[in-house]
């Protein structure tokens, strides 16, 4: 019995030694075949708690932007490069907008074409003729970067790949992209299929205002096909970086490692985009470096809070003589840390006199936020509540009162 136990122990030690020798080469081969899948087993790159004196990055192109479009750091930000699957930030945006305008529904059945089935690369292995809901296909793209699912969505929304690509380029121009040209909805290598880091940040900034979009790209995992297919998000910052809640990874041999990411901390949302970083996990490392710089150097200053009372004003011919005026939205300013004093607010009315009836939320002016003589932002000022039109007798009384009121 002891002899048998001794043989089993020696066998276990031998297997462990063999695994130690073979595991590094196995992980290297896995990274070459599917780099994003390696991130779950590899040690995460470390982020810093202090901002570097001078920010540098190994990315060929990079940008750090806030949600106002202010560029906090850039390196060759307008250089047009192959974006790989970062392309899908636009694919998902068009899909979300199609949902919001009622063109499609989450439960719509979408049937995979032979062309969608043929995409290759990252995929959920759609079979020709397989039907999946539009909502499930969205999750496959947002979480697992599935090329077959992206093509199925494109064909469903645009009628064809070409039709969808035309919508992609039209939307890019509308957002303000000048160094971007799409050829397909997947990001698979194609001549003249390019994006810049700056344009990508603009698209992410635009997309982040859709709650449904943010919900998708912040999902860490999901099961498809009644639990038969597991999706694990390729964006490892969702696990590794505090406040991270999106957006999209990408890799091809031509594009190298690309990443567009967002994080929200204490009212400040930052967008980091890095293109063409050289080795596995480097896109995460460089993005965290940019985000660390931003969060350590800047603060999100809540200058105006949604619903904050700005003023009150008289209303002519209303059942009430006055109405409160409030900020329609919050305004968060990105300011260097320690530079938040001296903020001034000025109300700019559109008209001197308001007449009932007035709906709640009726725009009556704007609130300008100024620091050191420079306007940093504006928000709309609206009526806090509805003011109905008064009856004839009340209007007559108010008119007489105004005539005999000493001003």
Q: Provide mean pLDDT, rounded.
A: 87
Low-confidence stretches: 1-43
| Main sheet: strands, sense, barrel | 6 strands, mixed
Count of distinct structural domains: 2
Dominant shape = globular
Q: What's the CATH topology label of the largest domain?
A: Beta-lactamase
Based on the structure given, which CATH architecture of the largest domain is correct? Answer: 3-Layer(aba) Sandwich
Note the total helix count. 12
Task: Tell me the total number of β-strands.
Answer: 17
Strand order in the sheet with the most strands? 14-16-17-12-11-15
SSE pattern:
HHEEHEHEHHHHHEEHEEEHEEEEEEEEH
CATH class of the largest domain: Alpha Beta
How far apart are the first and last residues' alpha carbons, in Å?
Answer: 110 Å
Structural class: alpha+beta
Strand content is 25-35%
The helix content is 25-40%
The radius of gyration over CA amounts to 27 Å
Per CATH, the superfamily of the largest domain is: DD-peptidase/beta-lactamase superfamily
């Amino acid at each position: 019995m002891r002899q048998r136990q001794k043989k089993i122990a020696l066998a276990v030690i031998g297997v462990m030694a063999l695994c130690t020798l073979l595991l590094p080469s196995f992980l290297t081969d896995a990274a070459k075949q599917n780099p994003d899948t390696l991130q779950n087993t590899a040690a995460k790159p470390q982020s810093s708690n202090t901002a570097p004196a001078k920010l540098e990055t190994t990315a060929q192109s990079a940008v750090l932007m806030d949600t106002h479009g202010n560029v906090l750091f850039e390196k060759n930000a307008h250089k047009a490069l192959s974006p790989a699957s970062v392309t899908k930030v636009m694919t998902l945006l068009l899909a979300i907008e199609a949902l919001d305008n009622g063109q499609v529904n989450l439960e719509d059945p979408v049937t995979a074409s032979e062309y969608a089935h043929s995409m290759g690369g990252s995929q959920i292995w759609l079979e020709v003729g397989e039907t999946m809901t539009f909502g499930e296909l969205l999750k496959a793209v947002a979480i697992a970067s599935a090329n077959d699912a992206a093509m199925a969505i494109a064909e469903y929304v645009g009628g064809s790949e070409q039709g969808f690509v035309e919508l992609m380029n039209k939307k890019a121009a509308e957002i303000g992209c000048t160094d971007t040209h799409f050829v397909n909805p997947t990001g698979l290598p194609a001549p003249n299929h390019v994006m810049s880091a700056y344009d990508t940040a603009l698209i992410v900034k635009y997309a982040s205002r859709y709650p449904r979009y943010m919900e998708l790209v912040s999902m860490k995992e999901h099961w498809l096909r009644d639990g038969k297919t597991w999706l694990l998000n390729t964006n490892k910052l969702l696990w590794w970086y505090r406040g991270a809640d999106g957006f999209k990874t990408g890799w091809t041999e031509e594009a190298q490692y690309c990443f567009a990411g967002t994080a929200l901390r204490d009212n400040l949302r930052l967008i980091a985009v890095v293109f063409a970083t050289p080795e596995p996990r480097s896109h995460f490392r460089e993005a965290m470096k940019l985000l660390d710089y931003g969060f350590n150097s800047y603060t999100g200053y809540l200058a105006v809070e949604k619903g904050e009372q700005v003023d009150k004003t008289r209303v002519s011919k209303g059942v009430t003589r006055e109405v409160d005026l409030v900020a329609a939205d919050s305004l968060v300013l990105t300011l260097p840390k320690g530079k938040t004093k001296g903020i001034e607010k000025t109300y700019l009315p559109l008209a001197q006199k308001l007449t009932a009836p007035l709906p709640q939320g009726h725009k009556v002016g704007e609130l300008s936020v100024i620091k050191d003589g420079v306007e940093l932002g504006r928000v709309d000022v609206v009526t806090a509540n509805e003011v109905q039109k008064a009856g004839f007798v009340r209007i007559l009384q108010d008119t007489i009162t105004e005539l005999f009121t000493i001003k």
